[in-house]
């Protein structure tokens, strides 16, 4: 086990620790967190439209047909204006947060609001579809495309979750160019008497021109070769998305998350922060009729039930069945948070970090529960995710609501929790006996003294 920890520290903790400090990664993670309220709000309104199918009771179907269905076009705007334009939110937040990081860490005279707006500007420059023909570049026009702007799904096609990776890269590029202009002093400085809002707008003027020239130049070259920035970016990220949507890819993801936890790094924040854009894109495509098993809150519905390591039933077990007084007290203190998928008390209280006895089930249990969840959805036993649920939603309920009312999803989530505990059981029994023996020896020593 010492060799294993040394290996993880050298080849995993070191590299991933560096990745977690990268400024673009921190900005992307911040964007993912900032998008949570919007995705949940939008999904809450989407739930209204799927309730009749979820319950499949004639009374409810008739009730909805005479009430909510008549105003569906109105209330679904809340979904279309969240998930339908999610890439736009990502661009704003990444531009803002990335700029803010440079301000705080390098003391540059940048304005985070300008960074956010310039990021949106750079992203929007990639949205219209253009074509090169007979020596001229013109806007594409078609059945669903007007002057290059293609409408599809719930909004402009390239504003939806399919444009997430373009938004990310364009935002990073925009902030880098903005930073370059400020460092080179390519900005218009106004007198101190000029109001701050006016001064700020002129500060962004030259960076805006630079961003426009750079993005248009790159996009123009691609257009002449029959493609554009958006399509070029989609190629490598489509490959990454494909890998993460396989069973093997999912196993690797959760192995990384929990291996990082073992050596003291919050694996969920780093790894899932990068994976969440894919999960959001997949759930949006599920709503549009496609099928992705790995979507939405798959992690907290089937994998990390009770928190990282799938420790919900473990908490309940040690609270009532552990011989060790230490474990019983920890279990009772951890049960409440565990119901809502929060288990830092267990991770650091048992502890699981750097614990050779508990490292194996901590890594193995979520891999097994993820496999059960993935194949259950893939084989149609549990419904695919179509609703984004809050991550603290208790076991079973999150899977049920997230799948639009699939009873199979509820049952599979319970099975995942039980399967995880079956893996935990022999290890926690051994650890409990060890601690109980130590407590008895300490009590005996105290009695003698």
UniProtKB/TrEMBL annotation:
Entry-linked Pfam families: PTS_EIIC
Domain of life of the native organism: Bacteria
GO biological process, one term: phosphoenolpyruvate-dependent sugar phosphotransferase system
Annotated compartments: Cell membrane
Record's GO cellular component terms: plasma membrane
Keywords carried by this UniProt record: Cell membrane, Membrane, Phosphotransferase system, Sugar transport, Transmembrane, Transmembrane helix, Transport
Membrane-crossing segments per the record: 27-51, 71-96, 108-125, 163-181, 202-226, 232-255, 260-281, 301-320, 357-377, 397-427
Membrane topology classification: Multi-pass membrane protein
One term of GO molecular function: protein-N(PI)-phosphohistidine-sugar phosphotransferase activity
Segments forming domain PTS EIIC type-3: 8-427
InterPro entries associated with the record: PTS_EIIC, PTS_EIIC_3, PTS_IIC_cello, PTS_Sugar-EIIC/EIIB
Functional summary from the UniProt entry: The phosphoenolpyruvate-dependent sugar phosphotransferase system (PTS), a major carbohydrate active -transport system, catalyzes the phosphorylation of incoming sugar substrates concomitant with their translocation across the cell membrane.
Entry protein name: Permease IIC component
Species whose genome carries this gene: Streptococcus sanguinis
Name of the coding gene: celB
């Amino acid at each position: 086990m010492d060799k294993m920890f040394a290996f993880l520290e050298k080849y995993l903790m070191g590299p991933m620790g560096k990745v977690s400090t990268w400024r673009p990664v921190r900005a992307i993670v911040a964007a993912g967190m900032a998008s949570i309220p919007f995705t949940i709000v939008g999904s809450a309104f989407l739930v209204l439209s799927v309730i009749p199918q979820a319950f499949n009771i004639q009374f409810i179907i008739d009730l909805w047909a005479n009430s909510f269905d008549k105003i569906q076009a109105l209330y679904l705007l809340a979904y279309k204006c969240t998930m339908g334009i999610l890439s736009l939110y990502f661009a704003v937040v990444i531009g803002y947060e990335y700029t803010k990081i440079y301000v705080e860490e390098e003391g540059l005279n940048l304005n985070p609001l300008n960074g956010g707006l310039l990021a949106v500007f750079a992203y929007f420059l990639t949205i219209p579809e253009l074509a090169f023909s007979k020596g001229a570049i013109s806007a594409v026009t078609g059945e669903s495309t007007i002057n290059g702007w293609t409408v599809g799904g719930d909004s402009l096609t390239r504003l939806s979750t399919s444009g997430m990776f373009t938004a990310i890269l364009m935002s990073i590029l925009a902030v880098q160019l903005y930073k370059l202009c400020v460092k080179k002093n390519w900005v218009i400085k106004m007198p101190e008497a000029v109001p701050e809002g006016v001064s700020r707008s002129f500060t962004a003027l030259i960076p805006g021109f630079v961003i426009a020239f750079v993005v248009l130049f790159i996009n123009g070259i691609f257009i002449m070769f029959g493609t554009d920035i958006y399509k070029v970016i989609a190629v490598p990220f489509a490959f990454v998305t494909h890998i993460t949507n396989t069973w093997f890819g999912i196993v690797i993801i959760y192995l990384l998350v929990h291996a990082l936890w073992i050596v003291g790094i919050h694996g969920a924040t780093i790894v899932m922060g990068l994976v969440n854009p894919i999960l959001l894109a997949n759930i949006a495509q599920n709503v549009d009729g496609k099928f992705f098993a790995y979507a939405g809150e798959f992690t907290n519905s089937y994998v990390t039930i009770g928190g990282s390591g799938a420790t919900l039933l473990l908490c309940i077990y040690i609270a009532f069945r552990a011989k060790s007084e230490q474990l019983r007290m920890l279990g009772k203190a951890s049960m409440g948070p565990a119901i809502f998928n929060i288990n830092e008390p267990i991770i650091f209280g048992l502890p699981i970090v750097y614990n050779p006895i508990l490292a194996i089930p901590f890594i193995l249990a979520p891999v097994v529960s993820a496999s059960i969840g993935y194949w259950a959805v893939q084989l149609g036993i549990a419904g695919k995710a179509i609703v984004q649920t809050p991550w603290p939603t208790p076991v079973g309920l999150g899977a049920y609501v997230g799948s639009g009312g699939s009873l199979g999803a509820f049952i599979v989530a319970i099975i995942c929790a039980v399967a995880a505990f079956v893996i935990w059981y022999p290890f926690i029994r051994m650890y409990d006996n060890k601690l109980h023996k130590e407590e008895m020896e300490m009590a005996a020593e105290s009695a003698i003294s």
